Amino acid sequence: MMSSSSTCPYDAARESWATVRIPSMSAAVASRMSMVGSVRCRSLNGPGGGWHNYKRLSRVPPCMAGLCFDMYGTLCDTSSVRTRLGEVLGVPDRLVAAVDETWRRKQLQYSYQSAQMDDYEPFWAITSHALDYALAAYDLAPDAEARDRIRDAYNHLEPFPGAVEALTRLSEAGHDVVVLSNGNPAMLERLADNAGLAPHFDDVLSADAVRTFKPDPAVYEHAAETLDRSIGDCRLISSNAWDVAGAGNAGMATTWVNRARDPPEAIGARPDREVTTLPAVADDLC
């Protein structure tokens, strides 16, 4: 079992190691983590082909982890919508930033509300409702065509630096690499294609399959079932602290990409690995 003072046995075999923090864990989280190996690797990649542009899931030894990447805010930058907002709205940068922040905040809030109220709508609809709120909050009233152009920015989010590098290295090391996102399948497929990430995924898993949203445990359980693994043999990689807390509570291993160096959530499980960049995820797990 890994604790705050433990080191991975893989360290001794490495000449270099990413800066990775292993926070202290509560007894409950440590118990869940007792069945999880944090660093696993093999030398051969799985076969290509499969659904859409994505590689088919390979048969891998039980010691390998199924790596589940969050898409929005982890692999792709949701704030890259600001370019489109500025072009369409023609307002000062400070107002563009405020609309963007409100849009993202309401997008997450509405997903929570939808799940709690048992009133599911696909994430594209949630994103549209959140945009409508953000525009109204700042007395902006673009027409329907302009709103469509703004929404379309979510199909063209920019990948974070190192995203392709990290996914490539992890895949070549033999890990199954999948997306696990609140996005509905169509919007995830569009974004993966446009961002150039699709060839690096073994599969794309959506919360839409269980008609709720993260951090509902059902989403993480769905990923484990699809990967045909115990939930403790799956690892979520996310920049969203609330997502990490939810996955950990459900029993997943977690890596938090903490770019802002924020404190962890006060509710839910703490991450068992913490890095600040996507390439550092690969440094840790390859």
What does this entry look like structurally?
The structure is a single chain. With 286 residues, the chain is of the alpha/beta class. Helices cover 39% and strands 11% of the residues. It has two domains: 9-75 and 160-285, 3-Layer(aba) Sandwich (Rossmann fold); 78-155, DNA polymerase, domain 1 (Orthogonal Bundle), CATH 1.10.150. The strands form two sheets. It has a six-stranded parallel sheet, with helices on both faces. Strands 2-3 form a two-stranded antiparallel ribbon. The model is unreliable at 1-63 (pLDDT under 50).
Key structural traits:
S-2-haloacid_dehalogenase; 10 helices; disordered N terminus; 8 strands; single chain; globular; HAD_sf; alpha/beta; 2 domains; two-stranded antiparallel ribbon; 286 residues; DNA polymerase, domain 1; hydrolase; 6-stranded parallel sheet; Rossmann fold
Short description:
With 286 residues, this protein is an alpha/beta fold. It contains ten helices and eight strands. Helix 2 packs across helix 3 and helix 8 (217-227) packs across helix 9.
Oligomer: single chain
* Uncertain spans: 1-63
What form results from the Cα inertia axes?
Answer: globular
Mean pLDDT: 83
N- to C-terminal distance: 20 Å
CATH architecture of the largest domain: 3-Layer(aba) Sandwich
Bin the strand percentage. 5-15%
Any idea how many domains?
Answer: 2
Strand/helix succession: HEEHHHHEHEHEHEHEEH
Just give the CATH class of the largest domain: Alpha Beta
